[in-house]
Amino acid sequence: MLAKRIIPCLDIKDGQTVKGTNFVDLRQAGDPVELGRVYSEQGADELVYLDITASFEGRKTFTELVRRIAREINIPFTVGGGINELSDVDRLLNAGADKVSINSAALRRPQFIDEIAGNIGSQVCVVAIDAKETDGKWECYLNGGRIPTGRDLFEWAKEANERGAGEILFTSMDHDGVKNGYADEALCRLSEMLTIPVIASGGAGRKEHFRDTFVNGHSDAALAASVFHFGEISIPELKRYLRDEGITVRI
């Protein structure tokens, strides 16, 4: 069995790590390079850095930060935010990123997924999906959760899979920062219908939530932010707990 991955997520705004609730009410959480180094040393499997206002503000993800991160950590990391064309992908990979995460750009121009997969490889293409459930329907949102698209979560995830995405990173906007657990029912449906790994995002508050998303949500990886940033759960402690619960993790 493949080991389940634990992935701290660092949302970046103005060069600092921030964390909010339901995509708003941001507060600072520290230096992104230093936090990444600590997580790497603690046994995180990967890291995700998201420039959370890049698409909204029309900026490019800052390359220099990626270079600094690559110098300091020795685990794979993904970078997202403001990536709209192949030259953006090349720039970030050349700066040291292992993968890129695309969200708004992929929804606006789905063939962007084909371009990355065809020119560089599916393994570098993470398609992030921010979605909210209303009346039993999961709708995808653009620009950091600001703009509803009318696209159905499951239809879009299936299309992204077929176009060549390497992974799906699904964030439930309703669960984000609330710490009541992941959207495991939706995650389970995604995991069963897709042929690529699914990363759970939004809702981690206790160690049990990670166990539940692996067992009930069939998630391949679990991403979290504030519980790590503010010292509520340590990665070594979490991995020992998961191992004791019978879940395969790298320790």
* Overall spatial form: globular
What is the rounded Rg?
16 Å
Largest sheet: 8 strands, parallel, barrel
| Elements, N to C (H/E) | EEEHEHHEHEHHEEEHEHEHEHH
DSSP summary, beta strand count? 12
Average of per-residue pLDDT values: 91
For the biggest β-sheet, the strand order reads 1-4-5-6-7-10-11-12
What gap, in angstroms, lies between the N and C termini? 15 Å
Strand content: 25-35%
- Helix fraction? 25-40%
- Which consecutive residue ranges, at least 5 long each, have pLDDT under 50? 22-26
| Number of helical segments with 4 or more residues | 11
* Class computed from helices, strands and strand pairing: alpha/beta
Question: Describe it for me?
Answer:
With 251 residues, the chain is an alpha/beta fold. 37% of the residues lie in helices and 28% in strands. The protein contains eleven helices and twelve strands. It has helices at 32-42, 54-57, 63-72, 86-95, 104-108, 111-119, 153-163, 184-193, 207-215, 226-229, 235-244; strands at 5-13, 16-21, 24-30, 47-51, 77-80, 99-102, 125-134, 137-142, 147-152, 167-172, 198-201, 221-224. Strands 1-4-5-6-7-10-11-12 form an eight-stranded parallel barrel, surrounded by six helices. Helix 1 (32-42) runs parallel beside helix 3 (63-72). It is globular and about 45 Å long. The two termini are 15 Å apart. The relative contact order is 0.15.
